[in-house]
Amino acid sequence: MAANAGNKIRNAKLVLLGDVGAGKSSLVLRFVKGQFVEFQESTIGAAFFSQTLAVNDETVKFEIWDTAGQERYHSLAPMYYRGAAAAIVVYDITNPASFTRAKKWVQELQAQGNSSTVVALAGNKADLLETRQVQIEEAKTYAQENGLFFMETSAKTAINVNDIFYEIAKRLIQGQPAQNPQAGMVLSQRPNERLVSSSSCCS
Amino acid sequence: MDLSSNPSPSHPPTDDSSPPPEKRLASLSLRTSDLPPDFAPAGEIEEYGDDDDEEGYLTAVSRVGSISSSAAAWKDDVEDPDVAPPSPSSSGYAGERGTSLASSAGANDDPEPQPDDWPRDKKHLDEDDASASWRKRKKHFFILSNSGKPIYSRYGDEHKLAGFSATLQAIISFVENSGDHIKFVRAGKHQIVFLVKGPIYLVCISCTEESYEGLRGQLELMYGQMLLILTKSVNRCFEKNPKFDMAPLLGGTDTVFLSLIHAFSWNPATFLHAYTCLPLAQSTRQAASAVLQDIADSGVLFALLMCEHKVISLVGAQKATLHPDDIFLLANFILSSESFRTSESFSPICLPRYNSMAFLYAYVHFFDENTYLTLLTARSDAFYDLKDSRSRIQDVLLKANVLVEVQRSLRESALRIEDLPADPSSQSVSPPPQFSQDVHSQLLSSEMAIGGPAGLWHFVYKSIYLDQYVSSEFPLIISKPKQQKRLYKAYQKLYASMHDKATGPHKTQFRRDEDYVLFCWITQDFELYAAFNPLADKSQAIKVCNRVCQWIRDLENEIFVYGESTLSWHLGIEKP
Ligand SMILES: Nc1nc2c(ncn2[C@@H]2O[C@H](COP(=O)(O)OP(=O)(O)OP(=O)(O)O)[C@@H](O)[C@H]2O)c(=O)[nH]1
Ligand SMILES: [Mg+2]
Fold first, then answer.
1. Cβ of A200 under 8 Å from any chain B Cβ?
2. How confident is the model at residue B502 (pLDDT cuts 50, 70, 90)?
3. pLDDT (tens digit, 9 = 90+) per residue, B15-74?
4. How would residue B552 be classed by pLDDT, with cut points 50, 70 and 90?
C-alpha cells in the first residue's frame, strides 16, 4: 500500500457513522491493522486512524474518523463529518434498529453534508447469516434510491472490507479534485453550546 | 420509613411507580426490623468475606467472555414479563432533536444485544432487589433522577430496579419537600448515605463501616465522574422533562464506574484529594515538563503526561489550574476505557472542578501500555494542531529517554519502609539513600515480622501545599489486597475524624486496635498517616514519623512535581 514516488497523493477525510455496535471500529481495525477482536469496546468520542491505498497510479491517504455510536455523542457528529470526502454508514444486518439508524444518518448527511461526499452503506456482520434480519434486497433498493453505493461486509471474516475502501478511493479519484482533510475539522459552534442545544429537545 | 413496604419486586413497576410519600413514609424512624429480612442480618453477609464484592470489577476488566452469551442473558432479562418496557421518554434525548437521529421507539422496546451491554452481566444483571444475592452485597451505589428513574446501579439491571429507585426517590423527596436535607440513615449494620445534586440523587447503601464523610466523598466522585462524561448541562433535560430518562446517555460507561468504585478501596487519591507522582530523576522530569510547557504556551489548556494513575508531568496554560479530583477522574476515565488505547482519539470531556458546564476536548494518545499524553483544549477544531504537538512531545521524550526511565521507575522506584534512613541526624551529611536496597538488608527478615523501624508497616504522606501524596510500598504483612483495603479503610476513617469540622482540626491522633496502631499527624504543610504493628510503642512511633518526614523532604525533588500550575492553584484560585 505504500505510495510510489511520483504518484499523486490525495488526502481524503473519511468518517464512519452508525449505531452502537454496528461494527464501525471493527471495520476500521480490519482495514488499518488487519485485526479483528471478538470483543471491541464501545468507542469514546472519536478515534482517528490513517491508511493509504494505491489505486492504479494514484494514492489515496485516508484520514479516518471512527465515531462513537453512543447517543450522547450524536450532537457532536457534525464536527467529525463536516468536510468529509467520504462517509461509510454502517449497520448490523442482524439488527433492524441499526438499519433504521443508518437511514437517519444518511438523511442527516444529505441535509447537512456536502453533496459531493461519497457515501457508502455497509451492511456489516455479513458472516452472521443465520441471524440476518435486514434483507439484502431491502438495503440495495434503499441505497439505489438514495445514490449510495452498498456492500455487505464482515469485519470478522474480512469479506468486502478492503473492497469498500478501495471502491471509495476509486470514486474519489474519478469524481473529485483532492480535498484538504483539515478543512473539515472547523467548527464554529462553541463546545458548551452544543450540549445545550442538543438537550433542548428532550422535552 | 419502612423499606420493607417497597413495592414487591414482582409487582410491575410502572412509569408512575413513585409512591405517594405520605403512604410510604409514615415515620422516619428506621428500625432494623423494618428492613427486608435478608437485607440486614450480618451472618449471611459475612459469607461474602471482608471485601465489598470486587469480583464484578475484576471479571469486567479481564474482558473475556463471549458476547453471544451475555447478549442472550440480556435478551432474556428484557423479555421478562415482570419488567415494564422502558418508558417512551427513554428515547427522548436524541429523538426529539430536529436534525439529529433517533432510535425509534420500537428499537427501545426490544433492545438488541449490544457490545456495551457486556459488562452488565458481570455486574450481575440477573439480580434485582428481589434477589437474595443482590441484598447481600456489601456496598451498593445508585444514581437516580428526582422523578425516581434509575440512572445507574452498581449491581443489577437499572431497568429492573425501577421500584427500588422509586422508593429511594420517595425517601429523599419527602425530606427535601419539608425543606430539609437528608444526609444519612442508619439501619443496623447498614448505612444509607444520600447526596442530592439538583435533579440527580446519589445513594450509597453500605455495611462496610466506612464513615459517613468517606461515603459521601465517594458519592461526590461518582457525581464528578458523571459530569466528566455529560457536563452539568444535562440538568436542563430535567427542566424540560422531569421524567427524562438519563440512563441511555451513560451507555457504555459501566466500566468507568466499576473502576471508580474499585478505586475507592485501593486509591488514596479518592479520600486525600491529592494526586501522586511517578518518582523520577529531576532532570528526566524537567525534560518532559519543558516540552509540555512549550505546548501549553501555544494554545493548549492543560497538558498531562501520566503513567497509569501517576503524574509524570503536568502543565496548565497561564492561570489555568487542575484540581486533583479532576486529575483522578480523568485518569480513571481514560484508563478504564479500552477505546483510548487503540489509536489517537479526540473526545469531549468535562473537568467538573474546572468548569462543570462546558466540554473541553481531549486529545489522548498512549505512548506505550501505561504511559499516555492528554492534551486538553477548548477548541473543537484543534485536533490536527494537537496531533502535531504530540509528535513534537514524543520526539523530545524519546531523545531524553523519558519513556525508558518511566518504565524503570515503574519497576523499581518504590518507597520501601526498610529503606528509611536509620538516623535522622546523619542525613544532613550523607546523600539520601533513595530507592536503595542495601540499608538494613541484614535486619530485613526479622523486621518483616514486626515491621520496619519501631514496627512501622506503612505510611501515606500528603503535601498540603502541592496537593500531592506519596505512599510507601506495602510490606509482606499487608501484601494481600484484602489487607490493603482494610488499611486504606482505616486511613479513611482517620482522615474523616481528623477533618471533622465538628471536633476541630486535630493535630495528632494515635489509635490502637487489634490490627494496627495508627498514627496521624497534621501540620500546615503536610498530613502523615502511618500504620505500625499493634504492639508498637508510642514514643518510638513518633520518632519514626519524624524520620519519615525528613526522608520525604530529602527525596522531594524526585517524588513530587513542582510546576507553575500547582503553585498558582494555591496562590491564585481559592480551593472549593
Ligand atoms: N460476527 C461479527 N461480529 C462483528 C463484526 N463486526 C463487529 N462485530 C462485533 O460487534 C461488536 C461491536 O463492534 P464495534 O466495532 O465495537 O462497533 P462500533 O460500531 O464501533 O460501536 P460503537 O463504537 O459503540 O459505536 C464487537 O463485539 C465486534 O466484535 C462482524 O463483521 N461480524
Ligand atoms: Mg466503535
1. yes
2. low
3. 333 434 333 333 333 333 333 333 333 333 333 334 455 443 433 333 333 333 333 222
4. very high
Q: Domain tally for chain B?
A: 3
Atom of ligand 1 nearest to the CA of A90: 19
Residue with cell string 467520504: A86
> For residue range A11-40, what is the model confidence (pLDDT) as tens digits?
999 999 999 999 999 999 999 999 999 988
What is the CB neighbour count within 10 angstroms for residue B297?
Answer: 11
Q: Give the number of other CB atoms < 10 A from CB of residue B546.
A: 12
Taking alpha carbons only, the member of B226, B211, B86, B230 closest to residue B159 is B86
Using a CB-CB distance cutoff of 8 angstroms, which residues of chain B are in contact with residue A42?
A: 115-116, 251-252, 339
Interval A113-141 mean pLDDT: 94
The reply to whether B225 and B329 lie within a common domain is no
Q: Is the minimum distance from the CB of A30 to ligand 1 under 6 angstroms?
A: no
Cβ distance of A75 and B100 shorter than 8 Å: yes
A17 touches chain B (CB under 8 A): no
- Contact yes or no for B182/B194 (Cβ under 8 A): yes
Residue of B210, B213, B217 whose CA lies nearest to B189: B210
Over residues A102-131, the mean pLDDT reads 93
A118/B509 Cα distance (integer angstroms): 70
Query: Does the CB of A130 have a partner CB in chain B at under 8 Å?
Result: no
Domain annotation covers residue B441 = no
* Chain B touched by A70 (CB under 8 Å): yes
Q: Has domain A8-174 been given CATH number 3.40.50.10780? A: no
Question: Tens digits of per-residue pLDDT, A45-94?
Answer: 999 999 999 998 899 999 999 999 999 999 989 999 999 999 999 999 99
Please give the DSSP secondary-structure letter assigned to residue B12.
Answer: P
Prediction ipTM score: 0.85
Q: Where are the domains of chain A?
A: 8-174
Say yes or no for a CB contact (<8 Å) between A195 and B231.
Answer: yes
Q: Decide if B527 contacts B520 (C-beta within 8 A).
A: yes
Q: Which domain holds residue B552?
A: 417-421+448-559
Helices (H), B428-532: 444-450, 481-498
Of A48, A100, A196, the CB nearest to B107: A100
Expressed in angstroms, the distance from the first to the final Cα of chain B is: 34
Spatial separation of the C-alpha atoms in residues B145 and B198, rounded to whole Å = 9
CA diameter of chain A: 57
pTM, rounded to two decimals: 0.79
Task: Spell out a b/e string for B212-222, using b for 16 or more CB atoms within 10 Å of the CB, else e.
Answer: ebbbbbbbbbb
Asked, for residue B568, whether it belongs to a domain, the answer is no
Interchain CB distance below 8 Å, B248 and A196: no
